[in-house]
């Protein structure tokens, strides 16, 4: 039974790799293109894309089950973040204001309903994908969906960086006198390209990996 995000962190990292591949096909001329069928499968995000492709690891994780608290925590974090993001807009348009109302309503219901009642009321959008699946697996799929969204946000925020990952990758590549070791800056050069996406990312051809743009360690 899954209790927290740490228990599925390796799967979330795998999802991030696929997310990068999805980005590459539009921004990197040398990237392998996805066929139309795969693009359609991933139209609603990485987690549902993996599920629709019957990704072996995802299917196995669905069988583990998830606790009410684990599911509640990820949904709560997601809703709080979405509400805060819209509230921080200087002049939210009418559609954003309606979305804000919807998120606030979902948040109120999350606090007052059982987690299963909340799912039945607010997650009809996943119904077609999970026809024939046990409800216990539907819960885990929703958990993966909200967890990956929260995880991606944390990876992309300029106030959070996976320094261990960067140090492991670059300790044998970059010179100790480089800007990375002096200032925590990854140099943009013939081996490393800045991808013009939001948030900006750096693609390193030498190691075939993408990292969020960071300004300092």
* Rg from Cα: 19 Å
Q: What is the beta-strand fraction? A: 5-15%
Q: Separation of termini? A: 36 Å
| Largest sheet entry | 3 strands, antiparallel
The SS-based structural class is: mainly alpha
Give the uncertain stretches in residue-range form: none
Shape: globular
Order of helices and strands: HHHHHHHHHHEEE
Fraction of helical residues: 55-70%
| Average predicted local confidence, pLDDT | 83
| Number of helical regions | 10
Strand order of the largest sheet: 1-2-3
State the total count of DSSP E strands.
3
Write a concise synopsis of the structure shown.
The mean pLDDT is 83.
Describe this structure in words.
56% of the residues lie in helices and 6% in strands. It is built from 10 helices and 3 strands; from the N terminus they run H-H-H-H-H-H-H-H-H-H-E-E-E. It is globular and about 55 Å long. The model has no long low-confidence stretch (mean pLDDT 83).
SSE blueprint and pairings:
Layout: H1 9-27, H2 36-41, H3 46-52, H4 56-62, H5 68-87, H6 94-112, H7 115-122, H8 135-156, H9 163-170, H10 179-183, E1 192-195, E2 201-204, E3 209-212
Key structural traits:
217 residues; mainly alpha; 3-stranded antiparallel sheet; 10 helices; 3 strands
């Amino acid at each position: 039974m899954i209790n927290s995000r740490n228990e599925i962190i390796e799967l979330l990292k795998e999802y991030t790799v696929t997310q990068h591949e999805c980005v590459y096909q539009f921004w990197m001329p040398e990237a392998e293109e996805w066929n139309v069928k795969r693009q359609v499968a991933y139209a609603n995000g990485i987690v549902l894309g993996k599920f629709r492709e019957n990704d072996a690891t995802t299917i196995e994780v669905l069988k583990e089950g998830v606790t009410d608290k684990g599911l509640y925590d990820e949904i709560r974090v997601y809703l709080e973040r979405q509400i805060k993001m819209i509230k921080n807009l200087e002049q939210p348009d009418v559609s954003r204001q309606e979305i804000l109302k919807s998120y606030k309503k979902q948040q109120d219901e999350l606090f007052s309903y059982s987690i299963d009642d909340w799912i039945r009321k607010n997650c009809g959008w996943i119904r077609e994908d999970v026809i024939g699946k046990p409800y216990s697996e539907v819960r885990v799929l929703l958990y993966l969906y909200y967890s990956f969204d929260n995880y991606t946000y944390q990876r992309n925020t300029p106030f959070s960086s996976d320094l261990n990952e960067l140090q492991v990758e670059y300790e044998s590549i970059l010179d100790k006198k480089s800007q990375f070791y002096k200032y925590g800056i990854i140099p943009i050069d013939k081996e490393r390209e800045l991808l013009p996406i939001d948030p900006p990312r750096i693609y390193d051809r030498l190691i075939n990996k993408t990292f969020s743009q960071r300004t300092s360690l």
